[in-house]
Design brief:
- It contains 18 helices and 16 strands.
- The strands form 4 sheets. A 7-stranded mixed beta sheet has the order 1-15-16-14-13-12-9, with helices on both faces. Strands 3-2-5-4 form a 4-stranded antiparallel beta sheet. Strands 6-8-7 form a 3-stranded antiparallel beta sheet.
- It is globular.
- The protein is an alpha+beta fold and 509 residues long.
- The chain folds into 3 domains: 59-195, no CATH class; 228-347; 365-508, Trna Endonuclease, Chain: A, domain 1.
- It starts with 12 loop residues before the first strand and ends in a 7-residue tail after the last helix.
Length: 509
């Protein structure tokens, strides 16, 4: 279990998103926009009208769940082969749109995956095959899918309700929504082409070359690892969504899905019976010196018992297509942490390495800003590090920018980190994004406060050209994060998002 700071360590901290008395996340009334602390143990908490912090005690949730099940049961009148084929075809078209970067309807993908999970394991079916009746039932379900998503947000406690049914929204949820937008997680019918990954210009600098062919998954993954990050957030958007997409991603599973994918041509729907699937599974394991169980594979990726099915079984054949499997392979590969047999490439480890390369590019972009504005910047070259060692104490500075005329020193720690999808719930948000002793923003702020003290203590010994007494210089200690952080100051460290940072003229503050 990750080590975390106690909330008492948040003293001398400023935040727009935390209650500064109990350090719980703030909410705001959706109607009045007024901030409120909902922690019943906090002495400033307002509890009238009563807010249902414990979601299981909220009677509204039970009614919403019942309404969802009524809508799902409408599909039981269809024959299973007709229903699953049509749901699969609609999902496939959305993945094809995603594959060709032409936008997709997120509610359709997530809603259909939810439907498939709830319906696939059912054994009682009707015989209806009327297309109009099917479209009406599906349109009705997708139209009301927002209600199901609202249940997810209630489960995650991003929303709360009071006894008068008034919604309260976690204040930081607005930032989470912006992060998803930056990642490209937007509905194609709601947003335009300007909604793209705004950090793509950094990530693309981490590319490793041109793939040797369409099956060169390693190079494709390294060049488009940000797609895996996007998919991780997409498939973990809420409580139910996370559950049905948290595949085990075993090495044997990945090898088999890759082998199946190579049998299908782009733009086509393909199918295979159990005999063919068993043959591919057996040959793949033998070729790659892997161990596995076909029944486990089928239960995970086709049954719908626990996870959204990737191969759709209509009672006779397993259906799949090129675009859907390609996109899902990116996601599954990012979940895989182990290697086995001849498979030596862990997707999770590869993702971490590519993130590190982008983090270095992030530092370079920060230095570019100061160089373009006439600051003296250390390290002098981007292929070097600036980590002075004095009296056996070594400190690394991602960027040290100096203006001798204005007598300004800006010390920067750059953190190009994505929020984990598991952090986007009330119970884990503060613990993981702020208090975590490895990657939390509080640690980054504390570490940079220590660097500031090192800087002041050893100013006359640093390998920098200071033309005046150092005590005459104004020091800015900044932690620059990829996205807007939950806290904006701790001790002497100011924490800014990259968007905030790039628009500041530091000579005027």
């Amino acid at each position: 279990m990750a080590e975390r700071y106690e909330k008492s360590e948040l003293k001398e901290t400023d935040s727009d998103y935390l209650c500064l008395f109990c350090y719980d996340p703030l909410y705001y009334n959706a109607h009045t926009k007024k901030d409120i602390c909902v922690n019943p143990k906090c002495f400033i908490s307002q509890t009238i009208p009563r807010i249902f912090v414990d979601i299981q005690k909220n009677p509204i949730l039970d009614q919403m769940k019942k309404n969802s099940w009524k809508k799902i049961k409408r599909f039981y009148i269809f024959s299973s082969d007709f229903l699953f084929r049509r749901l699969y075809e609609i999902r496939m078209l959305e993945f094809i749109n995603f594959f060709h970067n032409s936008g997709m309807k997120l509610d359709h993908i997530l809603g259909i995956n939810f439907l498939l999970t709830k319906l696939t394991y059912n054994s009682v079916w009707g015989n209806e095959t009327n297309e109009d009746i099917f479209q009406n039932a599906l349109n009705e379900f997708l139209k009301d899918y927002d209600e199901l998503k609202f249940v997810e947000e209630l489960e995650s406690k991003l929303y709360l309700l009071d006894e008068n049914h008034t919604p309260y929204i976690m204040k930081y949820y607005d930032v989470i929504a912006d992060i998803r937008k930056v990642l490209g997680i937007v509905n194609s019918d709601m947003h335009g082409p300007e909604d793209v990954n705004s950090f793509y210009f950094i990530d693309r600098q981490s590319r490793v070359g041109t793939p040797t062919g369409s099956f060169d998954i390693e190079t494709l993954f390294k060049n488009h690892f940000n797609l895996a990050i996007t998919l991780n957030h997409l498939f973990k958007l809420g409580y139910f969504t996370y559950q049905i997409h948290d595949y085990p991603a075993r090495t044997a599973d990945l090898a088999t899905l890759f082998s199946i994918w190579t049998t299908c041509e782009p733009g086509k729907t393909c199918s295979m019976d159990l005999i063919g699937l068993r043959e591919i599974y057996s040959k793949t394991l033998t070729k790659n010196q892997l161990e596995g169980n076909l029944d486990d594979f089928l239960e995970t990726y086709t049954s719908g018992k626990q996870y959204a099915p990737l191969l759709i079984f209509d009672g006779q054949m397993y259906h799949f297509d090129y675009a859907t499997l390609f996109v899902i392979l990116f996601y599954l590969f990012s979940l895989n942490k182990t290697t086995a047999g001849t498979q030596t490439l862990s997707g999770f480890n590869t993702l971490m390495k590519q993130r590190q390369k982008s983090a270095q590019n992030f530092e370079i972009e920060i230095r570019k800003k100061f160089r373009s504005e006439g600051f003296t910047v250390y390290p002098l070259n981007d292929n070097q590090k600036f980590e002075p060692s004095i009296n056996k104490e070594r400190r690394e500075f991602d960027c040290l920018a100096i203006d001798h005329l204005k007598k300004i020193v800006i010390s920067i720690d750059a953190k190009y980190e994505d929020m984990s999808p598991s952090s986007t719930v009330r119970e884990t948000l503060v613990e993981q994004t702020v208090l975590d002793k490895r990657n939390g923003v509080l640690k980054h702020a504390k570490d940079h406060h220590t660097r500031r003290k090192f800087l002041i203590r050893n100013f006359n010994k640093l390998p920098v050209n200071l033309k005046e007494n150092f005590w005459e210089y104004k020091i800015h200690s900044l932690v620059i994060t990829k996205h807007k952080p939950m806290i904006n100051k701790h001790l002497t460290s100011t924490i800014l998002s990259f968007d905030e940072f790039k628009n500041i003229d530091f000579r005027t503050i």
